[in-house]
Design goal:
There is one protein chain. The protein is 49% helix and 11% strand. The protein is built from three helices and two strands. It has a two-stranded antiparallel sheet. A hairpin with a 2-residue loop joins strand 1 and strand 2.
Length: 76
Amino acid sequence: MPYKTNDDLPKNITTVLPDHAQDIYREAFNHAWKEYKNPDKRRASSSQEETAHKVAWAAVKKKYKKIGEKWTAKDH
């Protein structure tokens, strides 16, 4: 289920991530949703949705880090 806007993201995403990180999450999720539609491209025990969420979190973690309870942009 791709997300059209950040408002469509799960609450556990929108309540913890800054707006830009939500953009990254949504775009990565939507791309992974299409990329891993075929079960042969996923690990045997992972669903399409689970895989897409994992990819999305990995994309966020490339640009953001969690300090305490707050996600902040990494300094590059």
